[in-house]
Amino acid sequence: MPQLRLNSSNFCCTFVAVLFVSFFLSATCAFRFPRRTSALLRHRTYAATSAFHPTSTNVHLPASTAIVGAGPTGLFTALMLARRGYQNITVYDRLPRPDDPSSPTWGNPYRSYNLGLGARGQIALRAADAWESIEPFCAQAIGRKDWTPEQGERPEQIYTDREYKTQVIQRDRIASCLLGELERKHGDQVSVWHNVECVGLTWLDEANPGPEASPSSAEIGEKGVRLRLHRQCEGQELEQWTTEARWVVGADGVRSALRSALEVKTAPGGHHGQTQKERVRTIKLPERNEFVYKILPLDLRPKYGTGPGWRPDLNYSARSKGEVTIEALPTREGIFVGVVLFRPDSSAIAKIQGKEDAREFFAGSFPQFLDVIREEDLARFATGPTFRLPSFSYCGPSIFYRDNTLLLGDCIHSVKPYFGLGLNSALEDVMALDKCLSESEDDVSKALPLFSSRTAPQAKALVEFQASFDYNANTLEGFLRFVLPLILDGIFHRYFPAFFAPNGIRLLQDHRSTFRQTRRRKQRDRIGQAVILGVLLTGIGKGLGWAVKVAARILLKG
Ligand SMILES: Cc1cc2nc3c(=O)[nH]c(=O)nc-3n(C[C@H](O)[C@H](O)[C@H](O)COP(=O)(O)OP(=O)(O)OC[C@H]3O[C@@H](n4cnc5c(N)ncnc54)[C@H](O)[C@@H]3O)c2cc1C
Asked: Which part of the chain is the FAD-binding domain (predicted)?
């Protein structure tokens, strides 16, 4: 069953339709094609049965670890290190502590956006024995139902060929689950501080530790890092202090302060004469296809059983003629969190000033949902905030500094949520770090460069490959660069599945391949397609030429 429906017969589907077929649903695909397991693949991907190395063999583990950012990446890193036996792990986050995962507040659809955990994320979480504390709070999305202007209402699709069913959970709730897991199992090794922002870093071997050094700096020696911290509560600054750690992990998201600090440190002419390869740089790709979004809860419960396709475990996706798309995913509590995506200059959305305007808009563009949008949500939609989607960026060629600073998660790769790979790939990265620590016997001075050399190229491949699809398909460039390749992939994979892989969006979800392998695989496909089409077109051209000549001869003779 194809995940993407773009093929020769319905190529008029536009960019948004195609991308959102895979929106959030980062699940395994059933296709198989001959693949060689390279050394790189073994480093990067993990069988479902593999597990974190629970305890390190090294008796000289780093004395202390600081992690900046208690998002899913930072907390999962803390869990991985604690399972290895690390002590004195401290995680800092500037935001307040999220509610307990079983709190009724998660029934509030405005509390946090939803994300889909596919094979990559689930394998990582299972390997760390964390899945059992997350799964009870997830809602399954086992298929999808779509409406498009070209094809109207489509029958529901249930994915029957997937090893891993997509599990949907709020971003803040997965952080809360990981927090609970840490407190239950590793409370003596890990402490998590909320409302604490890291506002500065000093590398202790580069600067005079100064009078603010705490007694622990003696233990850390010359190799450590000093963090300057601010504690705030409801916007009020309560205290400031400094602390030291043997090494620090920056998991502070897309606008990472740690990454900015490393960029300055490793800039040409900066400190320590970093080589080009050792530079930490953020590469931002141009924004070619910008969308913004608003949240719209959908209470589909009254619809269940009223017609085919209304059920609690689907991804609902509807697109209007005016380039507005609703993507709705379930929550454990039953209400769907809809994301309404539109162009920043959308006049249809700009016209919505109040509840009645919103009602009129949804009645005209999305009548199928009108009776499941609550009155209060119509009003909130009109006045509620508009959010930007993250842009494509990655960090490289290096993602570490000296022997004590490492970047992870959205800090090193930021992608659009359409592809459902932001967190899924970050969780995979944490597993890759675990493996590097094992191979380096927990000597971070060896593990950090090893991890950087393996992961930075993957981050680059992930971002660049996804960005290569990010075109507005309503333009000629978008058609040639995005829609046409999808059509070709659909045809070639259908008729020669042993030689040609499915389209790139679907390939990316295959957890058995690294992102670099996926990109290379698609490049090979393109060359193969070009050769076959070239031969075919040359043959047709020659055939036509011959036919014209024969016809001319006959006519002349006549
Ligand atoms: C609408 C939407 C839908 C998405 N859907 C999916 C999906 O389906 N699948 C998927 O895999 N991904 C999805 N993503 C992406 C996913 O949310 C991110 O990849 C993921 O949250 C990254 O986790 P992180 O911990 O690296 O960063 P973040 O989640 O950004 O966490 C960083 C943390 O660091 C803290 N912080 C920042 N600076 C500091 C500082 N100086 N001091 C202390 N703390 C600090 C922040 O408060 C934050 O808690 C989606 C994203 C969006 C916006």
From this structure: 402-465
